[in-house]
């Protein structure tokens, strides 16, 4: 749970630290606003990622399920600046599938916390593997990092792409290719 009082005190100190006057009119309510916002953008920390994947349906014989363009927003843990983009997931069910809305919820759970893209990709893959136990899985995340675009090397539009493969996707370039072309990568 976000400790709102602690966040408020920290934001006030941050404002002082950058040479601002936290008591000027425009900033008076900022610490409180940021504290409330933190409960939202870091709320994934309080969620059990497996929870969304508990509800499963049997779907014998289904070959591959692809969900693409799952938009997400996260915060890079190195700079506490947003990174955002899309997650794409393909899995080969072993008789069981998850509800279509559950994969995006799983992505959200990991996005709404201080995060790095590589780790998020692995976490999403591992959560799906352990809850749904598919025969194969591939997760691709593409994202733009504002810590690269608004500061530092300043390369707007540059995207980082990360992938995780499990089971039948792992050593099968053909399966990977089919998925990558389905998501136009
Ligand atoms: Zn960063």
Structure description:
The chain has 185 residues and is an alpha+beta fold. Helix content is 36%, strand content 26%. The protein is built from 6 helices and 7 strands; from the N terminus they run ααββββαβαβαβα. The protein has helices at residues 4-17, 30-41, 102-111, 117-132, 146-149, 173-182, and strands at residues 56-58, 65-76, 82-92, 96-98, 114-115, 136-145, 160-167. The chain has a 5-stranded mixed sheet with strand order 5-2-3-6-7, with helices on both faces. It starts with a helix and ends with a helix. The mean pLDDT is 95. Bound molecules: zinc ion (ZN). Zinc ion (ZN) is lined by residues 76, 78-79, 81, 145, 147.
Summarize this, please?
This protein is an alpha+beta fold and 185 residues long. Helices cover 36% and strands 26% of the residues. The chain has a five-stranded mixed beta sheet with strand order 5-2-3-6-7, with helices on both faces. A two-stranded antiparallel sheet has the order 1-4.
What keywords describe this structure?
binds zinc ion; 36% helix; alpha+beta; 185 residues; elongated
Question: Could you give the topology of this structure?
Answer:
Elements (H helix, E strand, L loop, with lengths): L3 H14 L12 H12 L14 E3 L6 E12 L5 E11 L3 E3 L3 H10 L2 E2 L1 H16 L3 E10 H4 L10 E8 L5 H10 L3
Parallel strand pairs: 2-5
Antiparallel strand pairs: 1-4, 2-3, 3-6, 6-7
The chain binds zinc ion (ZN).
Helical content (DSSP H or I, runs of 4+): 25-40%
Structural class: alpha+beta
Oligomer: single chain
Inertia-based shape: elongated
List all distinct small molecules, including ions and cofactors, that are bound in this structure: zinc ion
Low-confidence stretches: none
Number of strands: 7
Query: Count of helical segments?
Result: 6
- N-end to C-end Cα span: 38 Å
Cα-atom radius of gyration: 19 Å
What's the mean pLDDT score? Answer: 95
Largest sheet: 5 strands, mixed
Strand order of the largest sheet: 5-2-3-6-7
What is the H-and-E element order? Answer: HHEEEEHEHEHEH
Q: Classify the beta-strand content into a percent band.
A: 25-35%
């Amino acid at each position: 749970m976000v400790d709102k009082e602690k966040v408020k005190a920290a934001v006030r100190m941050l404002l002082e630290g950058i040479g601002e006057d936290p008591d000027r009119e425009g900033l008076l309510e900022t610490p409180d606003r940021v504290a409330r916002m933190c409960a939202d953008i870091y709320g994934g920390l309080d969620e059990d990622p497996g929870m969304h994947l508990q509800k499963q349906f049997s779907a014998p014989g289904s070959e591959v399920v692809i969900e693409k363009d799952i938009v997400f927003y996260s915060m890079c843990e190195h700079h506490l600046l947003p990174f955002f983009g899309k997650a794409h997931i393909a899995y080969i069910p072993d008789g069981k599938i998850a509800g279509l809305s559950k994969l995006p919820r799983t992505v959200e759970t990991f996005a709404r916390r201080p995060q790095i893209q590589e780790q998020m990709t692995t976490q999403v893959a591992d959560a799906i593997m352990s809850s749904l136990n598919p025969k194969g899985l591939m997760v691709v995340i593409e994202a733009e990092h504002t810590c690269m675009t608004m500061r530092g090397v300043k390369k707007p539009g540059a995207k980082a792409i990360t992938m995780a493969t499990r089971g039948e996707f792992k050593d099968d370039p053909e399966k990977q290719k089919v998925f990558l072309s389905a998501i136009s990568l």
